[in-house]
Amino acid sequence: MSDFVEQCRQEWKRLNVPDPLAEEMAADLASDLREAEADGISAEEFLGSSVFDPRSFAASWAAERGIIPAPARRGNRPLVLVAFTALAAVAVLVAALLLATGEPKVRAVATSTGRPGIAIPPVPFNYHPGPGRLVLRTASTSASASAPVEWILLLVALAALGFAAWLWSSRGRSHPPVTA
Amino acid sequence: MAPGSQRRTELLRGVLDLCLLAVMDEGPAYGYEMTKRLRDRGLAIVGEGSIYPLLGRLERDGLVETYRAASNGGPPRKYYRPSSIGRATLAVGVSEWRAARDAVDAVLAPVKVEVAS
Fold it and tell me: Is residue A70 part of a domain?
């Protein structure tokens, strides 16, 4: 068991725990382990699963005492996730509004080269680009292969919303609501 | 870890701080001594870390006071006892625990448990 205490001591040193505090914790731990052993209690019975992970045990003890900063947790994730979900929801709403009102008349079209373009309301001149160029076309001149930007936005937003829902559900599984 | 053991561990995790405050309220104790007092009441802490980080948190939060003294012929040990805030926390926590326990009992009481022989 002195090996366990020694590994804890090394971890505290690595974490810059002040020597007097590290010595105090190591001495208390060693004394308790000796007494437990004398009582016929194994280190695993006394320390639980921590006995297999002295580094985590040592870091956790020091962090809980406030000697070192608590390890970074996933506390920022909900904020990011909330923002992402809100953005996806807004995008769905915007796409739905655009589809409902029919404005603006913007379309993504496929050019003769197969590359996408954006169509906007009529322009006062007729422009013929060369092959492989991005094309802006009016809605009235768009071909049957055109896809309204509103629909694309809606699909992307719905996919983002679905992804957000999946993230929330996975978070719920990894963070059970009833914990100590 | 078996499902039953895991549930027991999770149940215990929520009240272990209260249990520690309660046993040290009986008289100042060092770490291992507290586990002995708990074990004497049938509460073995197995499988879920140890009491040290929790004692560290209680100390950081000002719920316990500590001092060093020689144990029975052994080396000096760090003794813990509840502070006034710790005693107040214990009293509130015990009330909350009893309310939760009674509510759960009310739900689970009608369940008939068949014990396989």
Answer: no
Instruction: From chain A, pick out residues whose CB is under 8 angstroms from the CB of B15.
Output: 180
With residues binned 3-state (H G I as helix, E B as strand, rest as coil), the percentages for chain A, rounded to 5, are: 60, 5, 30
In this prediction the pTM is 0.61
User: What residues of B are in contact with residue A25 (Cβ under 8 Å)?
Assistant: 52
User: B70 has which bridge partners?
Assistant: B76
Euclidean distance between CA atoms B26 and B15, whole angstroms: 17
Q: In the numeric block, which tokens belong to residue A110?
A: 């496929």
pLDDT tens per residue across span A69-88:
876 655 556 777 888 888 88
- Set of chain B residues whose Cβ sits within 8 Å of the Cβ of A28: 30-31, 77-78
User: Which value does ipTM take for this structure?
Assistant: 0.83
The answer to the question of residue A42 being in a domain is: yes
Closest CA to A159 of A88, A90, A104: A88
Q: What angle do CA B43, B59, B83 make, to 5 degrees?
A: 85
Q: Which of B96, B38, B34 is nearest to B64 (CA)?
A: B34
Average pLDDT, chain B: 88
Q: Can you give the residue range of the structural domain that contains B23?
A: 3-108
Both A59 and A86 in a single domain?
Answer: no
Helices and strands of chain B, counted as H and E runs: 4, 2
Residues 72-131 of A with CB under 8 A from B: none
Pairing of strands A116-119, A107-110: antiparallel
Do residue A57 and residue A18 come from a single domain?
yes
Highest mean pLDDT (candidates A135-149, B4-18, B23-37): B23-37
**Dihedral sign, CA of A119, A124, A126, A129?**
negative
CB contact under 8 A, B31 and A28: yes
